[in-house]
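In response to the reviewer comment on reproducibility (Comment 2.3), we provide here a single inverse folding case reported in full, input and output, so that an independent group could reproduce the run without further information from us. The structure tokens appear first.
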């Protein structure tokens, strides 16, 4: 039985752990938090920081592990690529390509070089240099840490004084002390997800992204995207990148903004996405995304995978957030919303404290609709209609 190391064990990685076991692999999970639910499903848990590339490499070698599967985090993706390179495991993306795609400064430079529609970014490794640029730039701007995900290390600045605060925040958050400055783009956010096998896209799906409380962290997704005309050109961008960089098989996600001027690619990911999104990919497209992800991460053939009829033509996810910090007492989901829900995942218990309401989900629910229009209308109101009761200590 082949041993696989799965980085982290949150609710995002739990389906990967379960599926890998179902596929006949011996699963070892790792991460800093032994209380995460996924670790209870793995065959073995080893406490270790998954972003520590050298220690993960030593673990791979000492435990005769046959492959590593990344978590829903860019640091995990970078660790995975580093280990693959060091072990000489073929059929996976090189560390060089992973850094190009997952570090914002490298990716934006690539977009500029290849005429991929995106915003112009400026990268800074010193706060003083950034602020010198910010004194004379056009506002508003976005200042963001180069190496973080999940909306962390990002702030909007309307003027120079706000840029000072945003720069301090971004530099303090960035591990590499590398910060980007970009023009602030107004529009709607969407995503296209593709699966690559033998260098070609064999499955895809798309969604609309809604950020009701934290503009840099997606709280709600609805599948498919309302702008069907975007899917073909973005899939062509993906295919061009696969051809140009000789990318390995596996998932490829593009997040983008859309307004009257066109589309702007925000970022791309070649990893597990958060919010149990693969379950929605599977419902919306009929393709076995979890199985494909595991096989591709291990460098195994994926071209035999086929799409079945979609289980749910219209589906989505919503994360329940509080409107401020405090102690969770309860939350209420209206009955007309409840009738569409097929899964509810509680991430915080009643009585737990929310320390940062902008990032901490209380729960996530997953839903299906018969009408695309009704789903997208309702989803815009989920944040206002799902009531969270909080109290101070």
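Designed residues, in position order:
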């Amino acid at each position: 039985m082949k041993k696989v190391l799965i980085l982290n064990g949150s609710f995002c990685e739990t389906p990967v752990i379960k599926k890998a076991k179902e596929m006949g692999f011996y699963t070892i999970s790792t991460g800093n938090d032994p209380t995460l639910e996924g670790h209870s499903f793995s065959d073995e848990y080893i406490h270790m920081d998954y972003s520590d590339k050298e220690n993960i490499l030593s673990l791979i070698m000492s435990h005769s592990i046959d492959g590593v599967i990344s978590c829903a985090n860019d640091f995990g993706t970078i660790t995975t690529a580093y280990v693959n390179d060091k072990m000489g495991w073929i059929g996976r993306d090189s560390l060089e390509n992973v850094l190009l795609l997952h570090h914002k400064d490298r990716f934006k430079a690539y977009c500029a070089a290849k005429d991929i529609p995106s915003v112009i970014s400026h990268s800074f490794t010193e706060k003083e240099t950034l602020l010198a640029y910010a004194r004379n730039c056009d506002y508003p701007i976005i200042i963001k840490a180069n190496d973080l995900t999940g909306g962390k290390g990002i702030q909007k600045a309307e003027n120079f004084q706000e840029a000072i605060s945003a720069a301090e925040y971004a530099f303090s958050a960035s591990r590499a002390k590398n910060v980007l400055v970009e023009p602030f783009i107004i529009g709607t956010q969407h995503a296209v997800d593709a699966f690559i096998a033998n260098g070609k896209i064999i499955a895809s799906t798309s969604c609309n992204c809604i950020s009701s409380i934290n503009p840099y962290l997606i709280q709600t997704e609805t599948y498919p995207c309302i702008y069907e005309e975007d899917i073909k050109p973005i899939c062509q961008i993906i295919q061009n990148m696969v051809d140009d960089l000789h990318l390995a098989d596996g998932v490829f996600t593009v997040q983008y903004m859309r307004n009257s001027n066109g589309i702007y690619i925000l970022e791309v990911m070649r990893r597990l996405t958060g919010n149990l999104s693969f379950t929605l990919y599977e419902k919306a497209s009929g393709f076995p995304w979890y199985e494909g992800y595991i096989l591709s991460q291990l460098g195994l053939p994926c071209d035999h995978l086929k799409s079945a009829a979609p289980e749910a033509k219209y589906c989505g996810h919503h994360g329940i957030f509080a409107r401020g910090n405090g102690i969770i007492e309860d939350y209420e989901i209206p009955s007309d919303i409840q009738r569409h829900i097929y899964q509810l995942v509680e991430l915080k218990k009643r009585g737990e404290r929310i320390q940062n309401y902008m990032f901490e989900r209380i729960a996530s629910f997953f839903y299906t609709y018969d009408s695309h229009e009704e789903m997208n209308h309702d989803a815009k109101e989920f944040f206002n209609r799902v009531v969270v009761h909080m109290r101070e200590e």
